[in-house]
Amino acid sequence: MRKELAAQNGNRKKFRAVFARIGKKVNYKGYSEETILLKNIVSIETNQVMTDHVWFAFTKGFEQALLKVGDSIEFEARVKEYRKGYVNKNYKIDNSSNDYKLSHPTKIRKVEIGTLSSRE
Q1: Contact 96, 84 (CB under 8 A)
Q2: What are residue 73's DSSP bridge partners?
Q3: pLDDT of 67-80, one tens digit each?
């Protein structure tokens, strides 16, 4: 579980991260969807590491940032709780647990190493 994110559940915060790669997943309707992997997620307010990685849908905001592997970005996102794991109701299997994620990323911008924003 992501304990640092759990303490911020429901809040919208500013984060800094490093772009790692583009991926793909099959969405709930069965179609392929591009995703984006960000690593080393840090809270801009506290400069504390919040989580080691996070996946987002590759939205227009990320696309417009023209990211290359290793680029640093800043964005705002909401911390949300979700269920993860395997559940099979027919066989009464429930290996799920609560975890925390970042959702609804906005104000996405690429930053140069020398111009990282100060605490706002």
Answers
A1: yes
A2: 17, 110
A3: 999 999 999 999 99
